[in-house]
Model the fold of this input.
Amino acid sequence: MPKQTLLVRESLFTIHSLDPDSDIPASVLASPLFFLGKTEEELSIVVPNTINVSSIDCDEGWRAMELLGPLHLSLIGIMAQIGQVLAAAKVSIFVVSTFDTDFFLVKENKLSDAVSALKKAGYTVNEEK
Done:
């Protein structure tokens, strides 16, 4: 199987942690790109850094690399393979998924390391325009 193509999103993202009973702010729902995750212990929100969210804790300065799809849910190992490449390059990741694709978030100061490692491993990495 040929290696996939990733698109580096231009926006900076922030990962927020909120109380699990928190309401999701309307500004998040109006954002063109956001991710939500909820457990019994927390509500996590990933949004562009231009969206203000009052959270318990947050981590700023993430860039998103979108795995261009759509990818079939039956495909095996894609996330693991990319994760191995980035781990070998000592790049931490925060992964979020949709029905069609995966987004690998990396800290902005590690983006060039991530892109270099992926290209060296045979992936195509494009910049958002």
About this structure: The domain at 5-127 is CATH 3.30.2130.10 (VC0802-like). The two ends are 28 Å apart (CA to CA).
